[in-house]
Amino acid sequence: MTQAVFPVAGFYGRLGQPEQILCLRLTTCSESIDWPALDNWLHEKFQLVQQSPALKEENVVAHSLADNMGKLCWRIMLLAAFLQRAASIPVFEPGKLLSWQADETRPGSWFASISVVQIDHVPKSMTRLVYEGATLLIMGVATGPNQFANVEALYQQLDIKVLQPLRSVMTVGKSTLPLLACAYERGIPWRHLGAGMFQLGWGSESLRMHNSKVGSDSALGVAVAQNKWVAAEWMRRAGLPVPQHRLAVNEKEARAIQAVLGWPLVVKPADRDRGEGVSVDITNESQLVIAFQQAAALSSLVLVERQVVGVCHRLLVVRGQLIYAVKRLPVAVCGDGKHRVDELITATNMTQMDIPSWARAPLYPIDDLTKACLHRADQDIASVPAAGVWVKLRPFESTQWGGLDEDVSTTLHPDNAAIACRAAALFGLDMAGIDIISPDISRPWHENGAVINEVNAAPVLGQGDSSSRTLPQVLNRLLPRRGRICIEAYVGADKAMTMAQNRQQILQSQGVACYVTSHTTTLDPSGALMVIAHDGLFARCLSLLEDKAVQFLVIVIQTDELLHLGLPVDTLTRVVTSGEPLALYDDVEKAAPAVNADQMMVFLKRLSSIHMLDFG
Fold first, then answer.
1. I want to staple 435 with a disulfide (CB 3.0 to 4.6 A). Which of 391, 454, 460, 608 is the partner?
2. In which element (H, E) is residue 605 found?
3. CB of 244 within 8 A of CB of 271?
4. Rounded distance between C-alpha atoms, residue 312 and residue 380, angstroms
C-alpha cells in the first residue's frame, strides 16, 4: 500500500475550518491611510463590518508602516472570505494573520504570512486568485478610492475575474451556503466531497447532502416527485387531495380535456421546476392554445389542470416533523398613497442596484405580464395604490420570479400539517417541501377543497425569514447529536497501540462500535485487521469518518505526520500519551527529534476538549 494523497486539508487548531498558509506580498503605502473611510467604503459596497483582527501578540511589530501592513492584510482577508461566500464557497472565517516582515530584496514591499480556510477540492490556484484580487482592491482603495467611482463596473469585473472562476470549481444550489453556515455556527463538522456534495458529521452520526437533498431520501421517491403527473397519481391512490388534471400531447387533446374539466385551467410542464412554463387563470380557448405551446416548448409532458381556488402554501417537513408553513405570495409593491405603480417598481429596483450585482434579487418587471396582473386588479402602471395596499406584479410566486412569504405556522390547521407529513412519508423523503393550495390554510383541507399541488424533494432553504430562522431546527432534526462521535488519540509506539486496543475492548463490551487506526494498521470493533487501500493516519481517519458503522474512533499517533498534514477533525475528546518517542513521517525507521514530539503534544492539546492525561 502507498501513502494516499487527497485534495483535502487538515485542522491545526488556529481556525475552526481546515486551513492553509498563504504568503501575501504588499507594497508600502502612505502612513496616513484614512481607515474609517476605507472601512466605510467596504461597508457600503460589500456590507463588510470591520472586526478586531486575530494577531499573534509576539508578531506585532511596533512600527507604523508595519502596523499599516497588518491592518491592510486583515481587510484583505475579510474581503477575500466575503468574495468566496459570494461565489458560494463556504468560507466562514477570515483567517489569522500570523506574521509580517519587510522584504529585504525589494524595498517598499512586505511579506505577510496568513492562515486561511481551505475547502476540499477547491484548487489552491483558485484560492490564490481570490486573495490576489482582494489585495489589489484593498490596496487600490487605500491609495485612491476615486478610481472605483464606477461601482457597477467594479462589480462586473469582480464577477467575471474572480467569482465566475470560483463558481466553476463548486456548483451548488441556493440552500447549500445557508445550511453549511448554520452547521458551522452550531459546531457541526462538515467536509466537501466534490461536485457540490457535502458530508455533515462523522461516522454513524453523519449525513450526506446535495443542496437540500439528503442521502437518506428515497432515490425512487426523489425521481417520482420530479414528475408532477406520477406524483399526483401516487398521492391520489394514498387518499391525499390532489388537483384534477390530465396529460395532453397536443392542442386537440388539451381542448378535449378542457371540455371535461371546464374553466379556469392551469397548464404546465409535468417535469419542470421553478414555475417554468406555468400558465394560470386560463379562461378561453386562445389562452389555452398559447399556454399549451409555452409548456410544450419546455417538455413533452404537459398537464392540463382544473384551477383550484386559493393560494399556494409551502410546508417544510423534516423527518416527519413540520418545521414551518408560509403563504407564498407573488412579487408585489406596497402602495404609499403618493407614488404610481411604475414609480414604486423603479424605487424598489434602485434599492437592489445598490448592492453587488451577484447578490441582487431579480429586478421587478414592467412587462406585458405585469400589465395583465394590474389589469385583473383594475389598475395600471399609472395607478396610485393606497398606503399599505400590495399590488401584484406576477400571477403567482415562483423561484423564477421570486415572491413574498407570510409565515402561517401558528394558524396552520393540524389536518393540513398531517397531509404534508403523510406526503413526505409516502415518497420516503426526510426533507420535503409540500405545496398546498388552499383558500384558508387555517381550515382543514377536507372542508375547503384544498389540494397538494407539488412535492419538492429539494426545497430551497435559508432564503426567506421563516426558512432562515428555522435552519437550526432543521439541522437538529437531521443531526440530533451535532453529527459528532467521540474521537480519542493515543500518542506513542507499541505501548500506545496496546492502550488503544484495551480501550477498544472496554467499549466493545459496552456495545459501542469502536474502530482503532494507526498510520499503517486499522482494526474493526472485534479487533480484527481491517484492510484499507492506503497508508497514513490522515487518510485512514478520513476513510473511517465516512463509514456509517463507526460509532467511536481511537487514533494511534506514532509519527509526526500530523505536524505536516494537520488532523482531519477539529477536536479530540481525549488525548493520552504513553511517553514513547515518535517516528519521522517520511522515514518511520528513524525517531523524530524531541522538539517534534513536544510540538505534537502542543498541537494535540489545542484540539483536545479536556485536559491531557500522561501515562508515561
1. 454
2. helix 594-607
3. no
4. 25
Q: Strands across the sheet with 403-407, in order?
A: 403-407, 321-330, 311-318, 431-438, 451-456
Of 109, 110, 93, the residue nearest 16 (C-alpha): 93
pTM surpassing 0.85? yes
In this structure, the number of other CB atoms found within 10 A of the CB of residue 430 comes to 21
CA distance 256 to 437: 25
- Separation of alpha carbons 165 and 163, rounded Å: 6
* Amino acid occupying residue 547: D
Q: Dihedral, CA atoms, 139, 143, 149, 154, nearest 10 degrees?
A: -10
**Interhelix angle for 64-86 vs 35-46, to 10°?**
0
Query: Would you say 295 and 257 are in contact if contact means Cβ atoms under 8 Å apart?
Result: no
Q: What is the pLDDT of residues 200-240, one digit of tens each?
A: 999 999 999 999 999 999 999 999 999 999 999 999 999 99
- C-alpha distances in Å from residue 357, one per residue of 87, 157, 175: 12, 11, 19
The residues near 250 (Cβ < 8 Å, ≥ 6 apart) are none
In the predicted model, what is the mean pLDDT of residues 582-607?
80
Concatenate the DSSP letters of all residues of 368-430 into one string.
HHHHHHHHHTT--TT--PPTT-EEESSSS-BTTTBEEEEE-TTT--HHHHHHHHHHHHHTT-S
Contacts with 325 (C-beta within 8 Å, 6 or more apart), sequence order: 313, 314, 315, 316, 407, 408, 409, 412, 416, 417, 441
Whether residue 162 is predicted with pLDDT greater than 90 in this model: the reply is: yes
**β-pair partners for 266:** 305
How long a stretch of residues is the chain? 616
Helical ranges in 151-281 per DSSP H? 151-158, 164-169, 176-185, 219-225, 228-237, 251-261
Residue 122 has pLDDT above 90, yes or no: yes
Q: Which residue has the cell 504513553?
A: 578
Nearest-angstrom CA–CA distance, 228 and 232: 6
- Helix ranges (H only) for 238-340 are 251-261, 285-296
Of 254, 258, 300, 296, the closest CA to residue 278 belongs to 296
Phi-psi group of 602: left, alpha or beta (phi > 0 → left; psi -120 to 50 → alpha; rest → beta): alpha
CA separation for the pair 222, 215 (Å, rounded) = 11
- The cell 463509514 sits on which residue? 547
Give the distance, in angstroms, between the CA of residue 479 and the centroid of all CA atoms in the same chain: 16
Other Cβ atoms less than 10 A from the Cβ of 253: the count is 15
Query: Which DSSP category does 11 fall into?
Result: B
Q: Could you read off the pLDDT of 186-210 as tens digits, one per residue? A: 999 999 999 999 999 999 999 999 9
196: Cβ–Cβ under 8 A, 6 or more apart, which residues? Answer: 170, 171, 172, 173, 176, 210, 211
Closest CA to 396 of 264, 276, 292: 276
> How confident is the model over 484-540, as pLDDT tens digits?
999 999 999 999 999 999 999 999 999 999 999 999 999 999 999 999 998 899 999
pLDDT digits (tens, 9 = 90+) for 33-92: 888 888 989 998 898 877 655 444 334 334 445 577 788 889 999 999 999 999 999 999
Q: How far apart are CA 366 and CA 358, in angstroms?
A: 22
Could you give the CA distance from residue 308 to residue 438 in angstroms, rounded to a whole number? 8
- Structure confidence at residue 95 (pLDDT): 94
pLDDT band at 1 (very low <50, low <70, confident <90, very high): very low
Angle (nearest 5°) at CA 258 between 255 and 259: 90
Non-local (6+) Cβ contacts of 598 within 8 A are: none
Which cell goes with 161?
Answer: 475575474
Cell of 130: 481570490
